[in-house]
Amino acid sequence: MEPKNQKNQTTISEFLLLGLTEKPEHQTLLFGLFLSVYLVTIFGNLLIVLAIITDVRLHTPMYFFLSNLSLVDTFFSSTTVPKMLVNLWTQNQAISFVGCLAQMYTFHLFGTMDSFLLAVMAIDRFVAIVYPLRYSVIMSPCVCGLLLGGPWLITNLQSLVHTCLMAQLTFCAGSKIPHFFCDLMPLLKLSCSDTHTNELVIFAFGIIMGISPLLCILLSYTCIFWAVFKIPSAQGKWKAFSTCGSHLTVVSLFYGTIFAVYLQPTSPASSQKDKAAALMCGVVIPMLNPFIYSLRNKEMKAALKKLVSKAVSSQS
To answer: Where would I find the G-protein coupled receptors family 1 profile domain in this sequence (predicted)?
Structure first.
């Protein structure tokens, strides 16, 4: 295949992130909004991590995975929001080529890790409900380490492959990225090299990384529903389901957003769909997760109250 756009073979060393809007009157409002969202995200997720670390009662596999989800959400949000805030404040949309690749790497690393952690947490709930007497034996520290380490290895590999392939391309079809961060497809559209390999790799990883966590979640909850259905008492059913409520809410938000955005006919507004999905998954949901897990979980509420009261007593 011939390289595209052979004219204008000037190599681009930086890109311009066009952001969510180019209207100057909206910049201040967006800056205030996203700064507030980011601060709530960081504070909420780090509070969850601290509560789990300081409360011995929460040193269980479920909360171990929840603390990792909170850390990943913190990093996921930090991948895009700080740069967007700087661009809004300084009115400077530039990002270097290296900075763009780094942002792309971390966005796909933490974004994919988010979905894998949701799958791992579904496995944890499956074992807890279907095999309650063997839970502590099955979910040993070694198994928890493998369930966490495996996804980290796979997601880093995926991000590394995407980044290495992107770094080999030549960009000469303009420098404006119609997005608020550097993403794969908008960058490929600016390349004048042959992007066929990149597109195949994106498709292959998209199928594997997208479907495998979702299948894992669906299979886990199918087994959970079947096990709960066989519990004779309504109280027993409610007790079993109550441990899954927060996780199901987050899963519904995460995958509901993806399905709502992408399971629609293609249209000229596809770039707006991409922005909406990235905003929900990378900005809004990481902010909501601490509220979902603290408001719907008695143990988490108690740990947070204990942490806050400790902080208040140490100040006085």
So the answer is: 44-293
> What does residue 199 show for φ and ψ, rounded to 5 degrees?
-65, -40
Locate 112 and state its tokens. Answer: 């994919």
* Cα distances (Å, whole numbers) of residue 275 to 19, 41, 256: 9, 19, 15
pLDDT mean over 27-31: 88
> Tens digit of pLDDT for each residue in 167-219?
998 887 678 888 889 988 889 888 888 889 999 999 999 899 989 999 999 99
Give percent of the chain above pLDDT 70.
91
The CA-atom distances, in angstroms, between 269 and each of 202, 226, 262, 272 are 21, 41, 12, 5
The span from the CA of 66 to the CA of 288, in Å, is 14
Q: CA 129, CA 123: separation in Å to the nearest integer?
A: 10
Neighbouring-strand partners of residue 96: 14
CB 278 within 8 A of CB 179: yes
Three-state DSSP state, 95? strand
Q: Which two tokens stand for residue 180?
A: 């608020």
Question: Are the beta carbons of 285 and 260 closer than 8 angstroms?
Answer: no
**Residue 21 and residue 14: Cα distance in Å, rounded?**
20
Size (the chain), residues: 316
pTM assigned to the model: 0.89
A 10 A CB-CB count for 309 gives 10
User: Residue 8: what pLDDT?
Assistant: 46
Residue in the block written with tokens 């944890």:
124
pLDDT at 294: 82
Q: List the structure tokens of 275.
A: 């922005």
Alpha-carbon distance 242 to 204, whole Å? Answer: 37
Contact partners, residue 281, CB within 8 Å, separation at least 6:
111, 114, 254, 257, 258
Beta bridge partners of 176: 16
